[in-house]
Structure formats: C-alpha cells, structure tokens
Amino acid sequence: MRVIRCFAVILLISFCTLLRAGSFLDHDEIIYIKNEHLLLGFNSKDGALHRFDDITEHVPLLAETNTKNSLWQIHLQTPSGIIPLDIFSASLFRVEKANTGYLKMIWSGFREMDNPDFEVVVSVWLDKNEPVSEWKIYLKGIRERHIEKVIFPKISGLKDMETEHLAVADWMGSLLEEPRAYMQKNSRNYFGWAYPGHLSMQLLALYNPNKTGLYLSCNDSLAYRKNFGIGLDSQGYLSYQIDNFPEYDISLDTYSPNYEAIIGVFKGDWLTAAAYYREWAVQQKWTRESRLKNGLVPSWVEETALWVWNRGNVQGVLPPAEALKKRLNLPVNVLWHWWHGCPYDEGFPEYFPPRDGETLFKDQIAKAEKQGVRTLIYMNQIQWGNTTESWEKENAFQHTVKGIDGKTITHVYNIFSGKALTTMCVGTPFWRDKYASLAEKAINDYHVGGIYMDQACLGYLCYDPSHSHPLGGGNYWVEGSGELTRKIRSSSRSADKIALSGEGVSECWLPYLDLFLTLQVSKERYAGVEGWQTIPLFQAVYHPYAVSYGSYSSLLSPPYDDLWPTEFAPADTLRLLSVDFNQQFLMEQARSFVWGIQPMIANYRDFLATDREKEINYLMKLARVRSQGLKYLLYGEFARAPEIKSPERELKISRLSIYAGREAERVTELQGKFPTVYAAAWKSDDRMLGIAIASILDHTFPVKLRFNTETYGLQPAGEIFLINENGKKRSGNTARERLM
Ligand SMILES: [Zn+2]
Q1: What is the whole-number distance in angstroms between the Cα of residue 399 and the centre of ligand 1?
Q2: Of 109, 426, 586, 680, which has fewest CB within 10 angstroms of its CB?
Q3: Helices 358-370 & 318-328 angle (0-180, nearest 10)
Q4: Quick one: pLDDT at residue 472?
C-alpha cells in the first residue's frame, strides 16, 4: 500500500513537470496564446485566466490555486443597488482562437439581463515582438441599462515574486517595497488611483528586480477617466485591475473603452519600466504639444533659479524674495498663498480684493517685477466655499460635480472654521467662465506673472444631467481644463506670456500647463518615513516636456492664516525649527537638484540667511550649479546614474502640517535612514551626459564613478567637465571606462 501511494506521488509530479515544460498545446481545458516572451492560458469552459508566464525568465506569475477568478466584472446600477456580473454569471461561453497570438472570448446568456442580445466579448492578443499583451472588452445589448463601471482586465492570483517592489505613477511617482506585507500590516486590501488624476501616467510596475516584473499600463491617448488598482486577497495574492467608466446613457447599446489595457513582463526596476513607457509616451499628442518643448513656457519660468513659497501679506512675501535674489544674483520668483481677501480653504473663489488692498498689492507686484521677481499666485481651480455669499447668489450648486446619487463632493479642509468647500465641474461653461474671469482680473488688473491653479491635475466623473458634458465616463474633464487654460491665456492683456501651474504632474496637461508643482520631493514632511517612497518616475519619462518645481522644504514652523479664528492661532508660527531637522532640509534640496526639479524654499524669512546660514548657503550653491547645467537639469532626458557607493545616515525628520495645525498636529519627530550622496544622470539634446551629484555630508567625500560610455550612447573617449558653483572647467578625458 505504501509503495503504491509513493508511486502515485511520483507519477503526479512527473506529469506536472511535463505540463510545465511542454509545448503548451491547447487541450480540453486550457487554450493558450504565446509569443517568444509570454504565455497566456485561459480556461476553455469559462474564460478564467489560468496561466500567465514570463517565458524568457521561466517564471509563472499566477499562483496555482483553486480559487475561481473572473477576468472582468460589470457593475449594473439598479434602483436597489449594484448588481455585479462576471464570467460566472454567463450560461454560455465560447472561445475563438484566430492564431497563436490572438483569441476572442464571448460570454452570453445572463439571467440578470433581460436582453438576450447582451454579450461580453474580450479580445486578447500578444505583440509580435514585444513582451506585452493587449486586452480589450466590448459589451453589446446594454440599451436601457445603467452601467456604473466595467472592471477589466482583472488579473488575480498574482503569486509572490519575492523581494517585490510596486512602482506607481502617483503624481511624481511612488515606490513601495514588499507591498503584500505593507498592506497586511496596515489592513489595506486595496490601493486605487484615478487617471487622469493622482495617476499622472498610465503606469504601474510590480517587480522583483532580479527575477521578473509585470508592466501594467494602458494606451489611452485621449485622457478617458479610469482607475487603476492593486488588491490583496485573503490568501495573500495580489490582483491588478482597471475600472473603466462607460458613458452613463441608457440609449447606448454598446460600450468598449477607447484604449487597450497593456500588460507585459520585464526584467529590471522602475526605471526600466519608465524607459519602456517613454517609447510610447513621446509619440503621443500631449508630448508633441508640450508647452515646454514648443517654447510656449514664459521665459521667466524656465529661468527661475529658485522659488520662494511664502504666505500672507505682501511684506512677508515679496521683500524676502527680493533680498534673496540680490544675494543669489540669479532669478528668484514667488509662489504666493494667502494673498487673497478671503480666509484660506473656505472663502474661495472670493479672492478679491487682495488682503493688502488693491493699491498696495498692485504697487508691490510692480516693484518686485522691476527687481526681476515674478509672482505666481494661488487660486484653487475647482473649489467653492459653501458659506460664501457668492455660493448662493451665483447658484454655484448647479455647477458642482455630482455623483451618480446626485451628491456633491464637499469637504471641510479648514479645521479651524469647519467651513466646507465643494468641487466645481470644469465640464461646465459656467465654472470655466467664472474661474477665467478671476484669473483675468489677477493678470490684467494686478499684473501677476501667473496663476497657480491648485488641484488642476485632478480629474472627476460628473453625473449632473444639466451639465453640457457626457454623463459619467468620458474625457471631458481634461478637455474642459484645456479649454479653461485657453480662455485665460486669450483674455490676458499682458505683454508677456502668462504662467499657468498645476498641482502635481500629469501627462494629460502637458499642452495646457507651463509648470507642475511636485511637492513629493519633500514627502516625509507631510507623510512620514514609512511605506511609499518618492521616486522621480514622471521625470524619468517626461522631463524634457514639463517644468517641475517645488518643495515643502522649510526651516521654520508652519504659518497661520491671519484671517482664521484668532483663538486657535499658535504662538510659535514661523519660528526656527530645531537644528535637528537641518539635515532633512539639505536632503530635500539635494533630491530636488539631482531629480531635475526647480528648487524651492517654503516660508523664507531674511533672518534665515544668518540663523541658518549653512543651509541657505547650501541651497544657493545648488541653485548656482543648477543654473549652469540647465540643458541637463531642465531640458535633459533622465538616464540611470552610475552607481555611487556612499554611507547612509539616520536623519531626524520633522513631520508637520503645512500650515499651522491643531495642537495634536504640531511637529512630530521621526527618524529614517537616508543616503548622504544623491546622484542622477541626464542626457542633453546635443548628446552629452550630465551627472548631477549632491552630498549632504559635512566633510569631503571622494566619489568614484565607473561607467561604460556606450550605455549612454557616448563615444568611447571624450572630454569631462566639472561644474561647481564657481563655474565649469575641464577635468580630463574619458577612456572607455574611467574613474573620476
Ligand atoms: Zn459636470
């Protein structure tokens, strides 16, 4: 008996081995498609995804489980709630395999749908040469039904690749090590990102850098609203999905997204995935129409050597920037919050008159401009305060974003007054006209250099039938936002070009915005040291097409808006932070410098030049070096930096609210390990390579650079120059490999 049992075990194992190593012939149960990189196997009875293998690396990416997972899910909206349909709701299924790399699956016979013509068709095909698959879904017979969303594709049962990394184009880019463990520890079973919105590019990558990786993308060039998500199931398997949103219109009988989902495999890291995405990205309309690439960005924005981000009355904003400009002797410009007459985060859009009064505001802007200091003023692009007089008077409610349930998106940002803001719909001419008229006033009456359009790189679905855009799904948000920027620019009477800035970054807004505020470079200041880490993923794809700028980096405690209730005003606003956090400031500035972001100091005051002399000098040194290397650090293409071995150091990190918070939200001290030397490489248009290096050590540190010139498309031999704050000088020649 024992012998027989052993024999059976051996037989099973050898059978499995044969199947794994076999030629993946279709059989009763599984239908395969395959190219030289990828193998996909689908269950022939119901279409469930059974195999997803990286053939090159011999790695199966799906776990062998008994769990039945559906490739798609349709959320039918009914008066009694959502009815989900999936592959198991169909009573009929057939699969048509056109060739070794293309198949079509058709599900029909759904008892939840009274229309017998209702069908779900999925096509999957493999690229002839590339390690990618393309996925498309098509629904027919949906007339008279409301569909809230179509989840497709949904790839479930992703097995642990070990040493996993999850890179997400979450604005600048975020990287999470060991995502499964992190999600379990934090009781998060799902992460979702809206695109266009917090997802700046259609790119996620889940990988083990030494083994294989999943490249998760889409080829939508028209900015249709969708969500990307990563989930964790109870067995510890990850899943990936895209939520697609059909137009919410019962007269339509068919739906298919205007794009394909792209799922591929790669070996490398987030930079490898970014380089692959870039090949597609640079061919898109938004890249061809990029304002930076087409010389449409105001020259003063491109020339900015340093930004000062101050808040409040003129005196606390413009004179410190003017003084800093004199010291630096390079262009310093201002991002200006709290210039407006209304309290921050509750009185929008009642910005006028400015809190300093019309005359002083206007005169001081003119005076600053004479000294070469330009102003970019804050005006939220989508919010209206519910308690403002204009909210009622102008019937703002009618033009707000509505959910399927007709509800608005209303949020209390201001913790002191408790007064709420509601999100306005950029798809309505009313709101575009309203915002454009405010921007026009700031530009034509006060001669500001430009508008920082807070929350501009976000996108919403709106279901208000009285608005003039398609209901629900669509690409009207980016179109509306683009229309708004055209309106503002065309109404400008300024002799100079007007700068329009977004919050965050996004590929969809490259033709519309001149610059993009990327505060994630100082992420620890508002989100701590654990979990997601910032990576320059967007810069790695789009740096030559978008000016990114900004940081929360500050040496002072946060300010408090004078127009907020006085009883909550802390006594210690704009005081020096502990010297313990000075290194954090240096680290943020070093990152900004090497990542090709225009540097910024938040809450700058004159006394910092003496009280934090070393830190301010470091900032000015970086700005001076950067200003001599703009063909790399402003216009260059991101490249992988040669490895530099440097010690890591425990840094004290201040986590604090950006402006003064309640008692419990005051400065929190954290600690984290950070590199002491930062580096990134940049290729210029004239085929040169610039390697930006910044150290935050207080002693000399010898840097050894060893790299193969061929990797960067350089000739085997050539000259090396070194730029420091004193200028550029020749440093030697390269051999094929050279130590510097
Ligand atoms: Zn709307």
Answers
A1: 7
A2: 109
A3: 0
A4: 97
388 CA distance to ligand 1 centroid (A)? Answer: 21
Which residue stretches of the chain have pLDDT < 70?
1-24, 660-666, 734-740
Categorise residue 173: left if φ over 0, alpha if ψ from -120 to 50, beta otherwise.
left
Contact between 59 and 211 (Cβ < 8 Å): yes
Ion ligand 1 — residues with CB under 5 Å?
425, 427, 462, 464, 467
Say which residues have a Cβ less than 8 Å from residue 602's Cβ, sequence separation at least 6.
309, 310, 551, 552, 553, 554, 658
Q: Which has the closest alpha carbon to 327: 617, 696, 726?
A: 617
DSSP 3-state percent helix, strand, coil across the chain (nearest 5) = 25, 35, 40
Q: How far is the centre of ligand 1, averaged over its atoms, from the C-alpha of 149 (Å)? A: 18
Distance 248 CA to ligand 1 centre (A): 12
Q: How far is the CA of 245 from the centre of ligand 1 (A)?
A: 15
Centre of ligand 1 to C-alpha 384, Å, is 14
Instruction: For residues 68 and 49, give the distance between their C-alpha atoms in angstroms, rounded to a whole number.
Output: 9
477 CA to centre of ligand 1 in angstroms: 9
Distance CA 661, CA 558 (A): 8
Question: How far away, in angstroms, is 557 Cα from ligand 1 center?
Answer: 39
C-alpha 352 – ligand 1 centre gap (Å): 26
Percent of the chain with pLDDT over 90: 86
Residue whose tokens read 């508002």: 526
Residue 707 CA to residue 54 CA, distance in Å, equals 30
Alpha-carbon distance of 368 to 308, in angstroms, equals 13
Question: What letter would DSSP give residue 636?
Answer: P
Identify the pLDDT of residue 94.
97
The pTM is what?
A: 0.94
CA 468–ligand 1 middle distance (angstroms): 7
Q: How many helices (H) and strands (E) does the chain have?
A: 16, 39
Task: Give the span between the Cα atoms of 397 and 431, in whole angstroms.
Answer: 11
Distance 542 CA to ligand 1 centre (A): 30
Q: What is the pLDDT of residues 685-722, one digit of tens each?
A: 999 999 999 999 999 999 888 888 899 989 888 899 99
Q: Residue 401 C-alpha to ligand 1 middle, in angstroms? A: 5
Predicted confidence at residue 24, as pLDDT, reads: 66
Q: Which residues of 25-39 are buried (b: 16+ CB within 10 A; e: fewer)?
A: ebeeebbbbbbebbb
CA of 475 to the centre of ligand 1 (A): 12
Q: What CA–CA distance (Å, rounded) separates 300 from 307?
A: 12
- Could you give the maximum distance between any two Cα atoms of the chain, in Å? 100
CA of 465 to the centre of ligand 1 (A): 8
Question: Sheet of 146-158: strands edge to edge?
Answer: 81-86, 73-78, 146-158, 238-244, 226-232, 190-195
The residues near 530 (Cβ < 8 Å, ≥ 6 apart) are none
pLDDT at 2: 34
Spatial distance between the Cα atoms of 446 and 505, rounded to a whole number of angstroms? 27
Q: pLDDT at position 4, please?
A: 30
Write the pLDDT tens digit of every residue in 149-208: 999 999 999 999 999 999 999 999 999 999 999 999 999 999 999 999 999 999 999 999
How remote is the CA of residue 464 from the centroid of ligand 1, in Å?
5
